[in-house]
Write a structure and sequence with these properties.
The chain is α/β, with parallel strands linked by helices. Helix content is about 30%, strand content about 20%. The radius of gyration is 22 Å and the shape is globular. The chain binds zinc ion. The site of zinc ion (ZN) has 4 residues, from loops.
């Protein structure tokens, strides 16, 4: 075997999103994750540029987990000639399927809208990819077990290891010859409501480490106490408590927490409505893969029976017209789309309404505007005065903070030859880099987009 492996940083280098790492060897060419860039327009435009590698030469894609910024580019890979296999754990592939179909639907709708409103004066707007493209991608999925070494070729094998974060998520240990490359994926937190504690790597010659919250410590809030107060206050105001939520993981965590608060008699039996078609699909994944989370079948059923799961848009309107004080959890988490738009359009101008933000709110989103105290907000082309109370809790993040990241690498027995900090904003990358150098004296670097590193193996 040739003595070199080359790693191409094709995403999540200097930024959080677009995770893609291409590894070229003489035996196999491997892509770790295949995510979309998200966020600011300049970044999103990068999605339209073909990858600067021979895509047809990729033998296999290994996915760490099902989030859009780790799987959302896959259908574009097929368009560029990819014909290999896409491997991940069974729940990751189930989540990836939900995410890709949803993403394709949004791309088709956006293109349709652009053409209808003639956004592009001369050219026809084409969707980034279609539902058909997503379906063709899903045909290449191949399940691998967690915790088992898989041989890809004579000198290359890999293993998925449980990491929490979202259901199915793993980190990847990839052995090429005698050298171990470790890709952290996104690191979960310990003592999560639904997921078990992350496993930790014990050896890493070359480490690719996520740094999303590399500069932060999550606040130590007593989340159940804070939630109880907010709910009781909302009941006191005889209003609606609206919680915009991500469909994957967060929504299920909220359902579980609300059920627990009721069980422990901390809140009364207030009606709870869960309105997210995608969230319902994710609930099914929890049901199908009981070994991947902490809930017993009994708890899962009790939690689902405790809430009203909305199926149709007609029921959304019935819920809005229902005059009782209630809790509504609806997508999307940053109020950029989804059913939560209809609830807020109807209810945000009522002083009895409370909006509770539980997710990260990116720049340029309605969620961020509310978080920053906007007095009016636009829905479907019209402005509405914000009379609702806006609240926020921070500690529900599914990502490790700086302390958790340091704990995750603490069991590595060797001194890695190289540590690459990825999946972070510049301030987070810098802070984590300083900390790792100070604590471990490791050879840490922060790669830029399109960097290539060559390793002797
Ligand atoms: Zn993630």
């Amino acid at each position: 075997m040739e003595k070199f492996a080359k790693v191409y940083f094709l995403g999540a280098a200097g930024v959080v999103t677009g995770s893609k790492f291409f590894i070229e060897t003489s035996e196999k060419n491997i892509l770790i994750d295949c995510g979309m860039f998200q966020g600011l327009k300049a970044l999103r435009n990068l999605n339209w540029v073909d990858l600067p590698i021979n895509v047809a030469s990729i033998d296999v894609v290994l996915l760490t987990h099902g989030h859009l910024d780790h799987v959302g580019y896959l259908p574009r890979l097929l368009k560029q000639g990819f014909k290999g296999k896409i491997k991940a754990t069974a729940p990751t592939l189930a989540i990836a399927e939900i995410i890709l179909k949803d993403s394709a639907k949004i791309h088709e709708e956006e293109a349709h809208k652009a053409n209808k409103e003639n956004y592009t004066k001369h050219n026809l707007a084409l969707p980034f990819y279609t539902i058909k493209d997503a379906e063709n991608t899903i045909k290449l999925f191949e399940v691998e077990n967690e915790g088992t070494w898989v041989r890809l070729s004579e000198h290359i094998s890999f293993r998925y290891q449980y990491i929490g974060h979202i259901i199915g998520a793993t980190f990847i240990e990839l052995d090429i010859n005698e050298k171990r490359f470790v890709f952290s994926g996104d690191i979960g937190r310990k003592n999560d409501y639904l997921l078990k504690d992350p496993k930790k790597p014990e050896w890493a010659d070359v480490l690719f480490l996520e740094s999303t919250y590399g500069n932060k410590l999550h606040p130590e809030e007593q989340i159940e106490g804070v939630m109880t107060e907010i709910i009781l206050e909302s009941i006191h105001k005889k209003g609606n408590l609206i919680i915009p939520s991500f469909a994957v993981e967060r929504l299920q965590t909220l359902m579980y927490m609300l059920w627990r608060l009721y069980q422990k008699n901390r809140i009364p039996n207030i009606p709870i409505f869960v309105d997210s078609p995608m969230g319902n699909n994710v609930l099914e994944v929890f049901k199908r893969f009981p070994k991947w989370h902490k809930l017993t079948t009994q708890e899962y059923n009790a939690m689902c029976n405790h809430v009203n799961i909305i199926q149709s848009y007609k029921e959304t309107w019935e819920t809005i017209n229902d005059k009782r004080s209630k809790i509504i959890i609806a997508g999307s988490g940053m109020i950029t789309g989804g059913r939560v738009l209809t609830y807020l359009q109807q209810l945000i101008d009522e002083p009895s309404t409370t909006v509770l933000l539980v997710d990260y709110q990116a720049e340029g989103t309605r969620g961020r505007q509310l978080q920053e105290g906007a007095h009016e907000i636009r829905f479907f082309g019209k402005y509405y005065p914000v009379k609702a109370t806006i609240m926020r809790v921070e500690s529900l993040s599914a990502h490790a903070d700086q302390q958790d990241i340091l704990a995750w690498v603490s069991e590595i027995k060797n001194i890695p030859e190289n540590v690459y900090l990825i999946h972070g904003e510049p301030t987070a990358l810098d802070a984590l880099s300083v900390k790792l150098k100070a604590d471990y004296n490791w050879n840490v670097s922060v790669p830029k987009l399109a960097d290539i590193e060559k390793f002797i193996i």
